[in-house]
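Subject: Interface between my chains keeps coming out wrong

I've been trying for a while to get a sensible model of this assembly. When I model each chain on its own everything looks fine, but I need the whole thing in one frame so I can look at the contacts. Pasting all components below, labels as-is. Any help appreciated, I'm running out of ideas.
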Amino acid sequence: MAIQLQQCTNQPYEFVKQQMREKRQKTSFLSQCIESIGTDAEMEFVHKWAALALYLGGADTVSHCVHT
Amino acid sequence: MSPYTDTWKIHRKNITKIASSNVSVSVFDRVQEVEAVHFLLNVLHSPDNLFDHIRKEAGSVILKITYGYTTVSHGPDPFVDLATKTMVQFAEATVPGKWMVDVLPFRKQVAQLSSHMLTFKSEIPSGLVPWY
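Reply #2:
Try treating it as a single job with all components included. I did that and got this:
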């Protein structure tokens, strides 16, 4: 379970970092955060989990509302 | 789940920047329109998997907003599936009283201990372990 959560946090984050390295990122919550505040280790952690909260919150609530 | 700390305040500040006023939210109207069209096309294509399409539409919108990631337009998407799987596991882990460790916190140590004992056990011949 812990591995699953780690994967869910890091994979999309690495995706955005990769895109930014190649200078072809689209404007998004995370790319804006990284640009405006920077990427030291502590801030990286904060951004990662803020993005995860949005991601899981958004991806899950609607479908659960429909299911129940 | 997060306590009221400086970290939490930064979270809120960042999220408020993109999702507070009508103007900042209206940026995402276009994203929602595009995904709605994808959703309708998918329903037309395979009406039996309606719930999968709904899940994918919601996931696609939030992935686009948060990470700028464009999902696969047809069929399952790896990131949407990852979110679903994680949330299913999270829901299971947070059911009150489902796990013995919620009621008996020392059970956490017992789990560690028993895993140690199992390694220990596997190192000696099975006939020499009378209590199992």
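Reply #3:
Confirming on my end. The mean pLDDT of chain A is 78.
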